[in-house]
Specification:
With 256 residues, this protein is an alpha/beta fold. The protein has a single domain, classed as 3-Layer(aba) Sandwich (Rossmann fold). The chain is built from eight helices and nine strands. The chain has helices spanning 22-30, 68-75, 113-118, 123-137, 152-163, 182-198, 209-215, 233-247, and strands at 2-17, 39-53, 57-61, 83-88, 92-95, 170-174, 201-205, 218-223, 226-231. The strands form two sheets. The chain has a six-stranded mixed β-sheet with strand order 5-6-7-3-8-9, with helices on both faces. Keywords: ATP-binding, Nucleotide-binding, Transport. Belongs to the ABC transporter superfamily.
Length: 256
């Protein structure tokens, strides 16, 4: 039974109003972006079709700007497709946006309930998170200070804790755990491993091809906003490595 069905989905973003910018209109028209009048658009994803089964763990690879983050946001319900359809089954938790549902003027403690409610948490789950999150994040007295005063690492701690505090049917994960000290990173990895064991379906984009191969049951290579290849993790990752080596010898490919 599929957890996620993506049917011929495309995402495009308006760039600006080109009605009074004739030079840019001309240049964009020559490369097939936008028209002579009105807004210009950039296609982040083009005609994506994927079916992700219940219990499957799909890894995403591709160079920076390939469209992986846009695809994660699409699956996570944070954006809607410009065309096509995306259907998901069950509770979807997107560990993507660091500021989802968070009010910068409120304290870390005060910011626990709204994001969890937006993620579909029950009253009991919110109450449990209020007890557990302050201790896990290790924010100490900062948990009662405004979120806007937090460093990037502190913000990452709070949002990661929020997104992994309630069970998910589908976990959508963009790797950004680098912020923070070694102790927190280790605790976050342990928490993530436990969280994954309780989540039925995973969609993951990571800088580490080794991690992608180890965690995934299938891998999709995203290139230029399209699915270039899907299949066995080792085969797809090897094909991607060879492609990147040929394109830029000596450079290590990085995920988006």
């Amino acid at each position: 039974m599929p957890s996620i069905i993506i049917d011929n989905a495309s995402v495009r973003y308006p760039v600006f109003d080109t009605s009074s910018r004739s030079l840019k209109v001309s240049l964009l028209s020559r490369i097939g972006v936008g028209g002579k009048q009105g807004p210009a658009y950039v296609r982040a994803l083009s005609d994506i079709s994927l079916t992700i089964g219940d219990g499957e763990r799909l890894g995403l690879v591709g160079r920076n700007g390939a469209g992986k983050s846009t695809l994660l946001r699409l699956i996570g319900g944070l954006i809607a497709p410009s065309s096509g359809q995306v259907k998901t089954k069950g509770r979807v938790i997107p560990v993507i946006e660091r500021g989802i549902g968070i009010h910068p003027e409120l304290t870390g403690r005060q910011n626990i309930e709204l994001p969890l409610r937006l993620l579909g948490a029950t009253k009991a789950e919110v109450l449990a998170a209020r007890d557990e999150i302050p201790d896990f994040t290790g924010l100490g007295e900062f948990i009662d200070l405004p979120y806007k005063t937090y460093s990037e690492g502190m913000k990452a701690r709070l949002v990661f804790a929020l997104c992994t505090s309630i069970p998910a049917d589908v976990l959508v994960l963009d790797e950004w755990l680098g912020a923070g000290d070694i102790d927190f990173t280790e605790r976050a990895q342990r928490r993530l491993t436990e969280f994954l064991s309780r989540s039925r379906t995973l969609v993951l984009a990571s800088h580490s091809l080794e991690l992608i191969e180890r965690v995934s049951t299938r891998v999709a290579w995203i290139d230029g906003g399209r699915v270039r290849m899907t299949g066995d993790p080792a085969e797809v990752c090897d094909a991607y490595r060879h492609h990147m080596s040929a394109a830029a010898p000596g450079q290590v490919a990085a995920a988006e």
